[in-house]
Design goal:
The structure is a single chain. With about 240 residues, this protein is an alpha/beta fold. The chain has two domains: about 160 residues, Rossmann fold (3-Layer(aba) Sandwich), CATH 3.40.50; about 70 residues, no CATH class. Helix content is about 40%, strand content about 25%. The strands form two sheets. It has a six-stranded mixed sheet, sandwiched between helices. Strands 2-1-4-5 form a four-stranded antiparallel sheet. Helix 3 runs parallel beside helix 5 and helix 7 runs antiparallel to helix 8. It is globular, with a radius of gyration of 18 Å. The N and C termini lie far apart (about 40 Å).
Length: about 240
């Protein structure tokens, strides 16, 4: 589903790599968590995976398509929810979702069926024909999620999706993550919420200072309970400095 091999990324004028030799393999049908402190490289990794940022070396393969060699087909298989719910706020929710659906060549019948399904699921039918600038934080997040899923992507990538959401909105998003992977798709999401990751994910990667520290199978005995202590062990040296 997603293969990352020896990924390296350095920003202009930086003396260090934001991502240094990262290698990961994500499977079909799993929810994969990505943990790290602020500045660890989570968002940079996600922006490389989604093709927003170029990278210096390494490979990113999405559903068999190389992000550098065939970016269009790689991106067609990705649904991305950014951490700042960037949308065209002067559009209505329906106009925005249709705009994204047009970019992905989603047939009219399929987009209407999916849109109605998600509007009912996320309980925002009442606002779909209002301008997005009048939406609450949670409603903007939900319209971003609907837009990310309107083309039925194999890989759903979310960057800090739960920040600032009320409990019901969080439950709605978690339910859809589970439903998405139940169909054989993959969810990759970054988070600061270790408790949520430990309960929701099948596996989790810990990144620190741009480097991969560990990939943990949370189905193995004791790993869910020990995730916080393992995470702290990899970041403790910096915290004590």
């Amino acid at each position: 589903m997603l293969t990352i091999r020896n990924l390296k990324k350095k920003y202009i004028n930086s003396k260090r790599y934001s991502i240094n030799d990262l290698t990961l393999e994500l499977k079909e049908g799993e929810i994969f968590g990505f943990l790290g402190q602020n500045g660890a490289g989570k968002s940079t990794t996600i922006k490389c995976i989604t093709g927003i940022h170029p990278y210096d070396s390494g490979e990113i393969i999405v559903c068999g398509y190389d992000m550098k060699k065939d970016p269009i087909n790689a991106k067609k298989n990705i649904g991305y929810v950014p951490d700042n719910h960037s949308v065209y706020e002067k559009l209505t929710g329906r106009e925005y979702v249709n705009y994204i659906a047009d970019l992905y060549d989603v047939p009219l019948e399929a987009r209407e069926e999916r849109l109605n399904k998600y509007l009912k699921m996320f309980k925002i039918s009442f606002a779909i024909d209002r301008q997005i600038k009048g939406y609450s934080h949670g409603m903007k997040q939900k319209i971003c999620i609907i837009a990310a899923l309107i083309h039925d992507p194999k890989l759903w990538v979310l960057d800090e999706p739960m920040v600032g959401l009320d409990p019901q909105s969080m439950f709605d998003i978690i339910d859809e993550m589970k439903a998405h992977t139940a169909e054989g798709n993959t969810v990759f999401f970054s988070s600061h919420n270790i408790d949520l990751v430990s309960k929701l994910c099948d596996r989790v990667a810990i990144i620190h200072d741009g480097e991969l520290c560990a990939v943990i199978d949370l189905h193995e005995e004791g790993n869910r309970e020990s995730l916080e202590s393992v995470f702290r062990s990899y970041t403790m040296a910096e915290n004590q400095a």
